[in-house]
Amino acid sequence: MKKDISLRKVEHIAIAVVPRLPHEEDHEHFWDAYFINLKNEPIQSVLINSYGYGILDGESRKTSSLRYFFEEIPAMTAVKIEPMYENVLSFANEFWVSFSYDNYLFDKKYVFVAGSLSPLNFTDIPLCNAKA
């Protein structure tokens, strides 16, 4: 029964989207998405699904859905997931994360709403040596 299923809260896990320092040869500004394990132990079987969605030129649009798998992510580690073009920041960007820890399967959805990736919202990002 539903009452017999224990639900555990996802803690000490984060997704961060960080602006890249521009290079002269880059024609566009890129950002990088990171998965951050702030636990003091590794986590296993990390599956991340990402995509963006929003309105462009009056039409509803959706980016390709990208999937990433990491067998293990060590404790206190940030792993780069994907580069992001600056033009997709006008969309909502969603990251669905599933992982195994302490013999339990966790999942959580992280959504960066359209326009939220702005210097006005920047904060220090642990383990990335960045502010985003």
List the helices and strands and how they pair.
Elements: E1 13-19, E2 30-37, E3 43-56, E4 59-62, E5 66-73, E6 77-85, E7 92-101, E8 104-112, E9 124-125, E10 130-131
Q: How does this structure look, described?
A:
By secondary structure, this protein is mainly beta. It has a single domain (2-131), classed as Immunoglobulin-like, CATH 2.60.40.2420. Helix content is 0%, strand content 55%. The chain has no helices and 10 strands. It has strands at 13-19, 30-37, 43-56, 59-62, 66-73, 77-85, 92-101, 104-112, 124-125, 130-131. The strands form 3 sheets. Strands 3, 4, 5, 7 and 8 form a 5-stranded antiparallel β-sheet that branches. It has a 3-stranded antiparallel β-sheet with strand order 1-2-6, with no helix packed on it. Strand 7 (92-101) and strand 8 (104-112) form a beta hairpin. It starts with 12 loop residues before the first strand and ends with a strand. The relative contact order is 0.26. The mean pLDDT is 87.
Outline:
The chain is mainly β and 132 residues long. It has no helices and 10 strands. It is globular.
Keywords:
single chain; three-stranded antiparallel β-sheet; 132 residues; Immunoglobulin-like; 10 strands
Annotation, overall tally of beta strands: 10
Shape field: globular
Helix % is under 10%
Please state the average pLDDT score.
87
Unreliable sequence segments: none
C-alpha Rg (nearest Å): 16 Å
Content of β-strand: over 45%
The CATH architecture term is Sandwich
How many domain regions? 1
> What class do helices, strands and sheet pairing give?
mainly beta
For the record, give the distance between the C-alpha atoms at the N and C termini, rounded to a whole number. Answer: 43 Å
List the helices and strands in order.
Answer: EEEEEEEEEE
CATH class category label: Mainly Beta
Number of helices: 0
Largest sheet: 5 strands, antiparallel
CATH topology: Immunoglobulin-like
